[in-house]
Amino acid sequence: MPTHEEQSLWKGTPSQWLNLWPFVWSLLGAAVIIVASILLMMPLLLVALIFPIVYSLWKVLVVRNRIYELTTERLRVQTGVFNHELDEIELYRVKDTLILRAWWERMANLGSIRLETSDRTQPVLMMPGIPKGQEVREMLRTQVEIQRDRKRVRELDVDDAGDGMLI
Fold it and tell me: What is the pTM of this model?
């Protein structure tokens, strides 16, 4: 019987482009604090700049610490800045994949990948802002089919009426 060793095929994080609006709001907040400090002649008010700075740094860390790893057998999702959580989805459990690309994602060569699975902890997994998202989705789709063939797994869908099946 041939041995099958699991190999890592792709590992990545979402793009920091996901933080565009939080960064814009932080800049606007910082500008308001600076203008208020000047107009009110209260230099001590500049201490409040710590809030938009900390908020922006937190958003960067949250995105940076969401790590996806596609292996030959599963998709691992690690999240958390201080406390890490690791969830895995066996690839043969993936039912469907969808790539979503807003106009700004297309300009930055990003894509958001949506997976529908039969996994209990992650029935729907959204992977937002993935660099080269279309390529990652194709790699994922290919590995899903390989794992289904290897494990001899097929999807069985029953419609709402219960009288039709698709194998």
Answer: 0.83
* Mean pLDDT on 43-65: 95
Across the range 35-47, mean pLDDT stands at 91
Q: If you count them, how many residues does the chain have? A: 167
Q: Where are the beta strands (DSSP E) in the chain?
A: 8-12, 67-71, 74-79, 85-90, 94-100, 110-117, 124-131, 157-158, 165-166
Alpha-carbon span 62 to 60, nearest angstrom: 6
**pLDDT tens across 82-98, in order?**
999 999 999 999 999 99
136: Cβ–Cβ under 8 A, 6 or more apart, which residues?
10, 12, 70, 111, 113, 127, 130
- At position 165, the amino acid (one-letter code) is M
- Asked whether 72 and 9 are in contact (CB, 8 A), the reply is yes
Q: Could you tell me the two tokens for 74?
A: 């599963």
Joined together, the tokens standing for residue 34 give 């600076």
Q: Under a CB-based contact definition with an 8 Å cutoff, are residues 70 and 11 in contact? A: yes
Place of tokens 């043969």: 92
